[in-house]
Design goal:
Length: 157
Amino acid sequence: MGRRAAAIGPAVVGDQAPTLVLAALLHDIGYAPELAATGFHPLDGARFVRDEGRPDVASLIAHHTGARNEARLRGVAELDDEFPFEDSLIQRALTFCDLTTTPDGRPTNVSDRVVEIVRRYGDDHVVSQGVQAGLVEFLGIEREIDTILSGSPASIR
């Protein structure tokens, strides 16, 4: 996902590209057992990154890939309390990178990635329910970023 962020960052978010790449590299850090205080990786990762001095990156991590949908399902109110959601282009670009890259780093599209997530976790899992709740939003993000990239060199897309 970091490579995807590095490739699209300059065209999509300009001088914020390094921040996008850092957020992409760290977006799942909350899965690390030593950081998993709540068991909700976006919040656990965001707290760690914030405490390390990068509140800007922490906010991106807190809300990557529609984490607010899953937070609602889990009853994790402190996500928005600690990290208010900002619907920014860089936030959408991070979600785009996550949902257009497979777990093993191959390119994909949002629809196929959501299917993969649901298949991996199962229909009844809160992660699956969260990404399914965000599907319309995610498809809109994919269209938005693809439109921006359509004016860029083909090697970026």
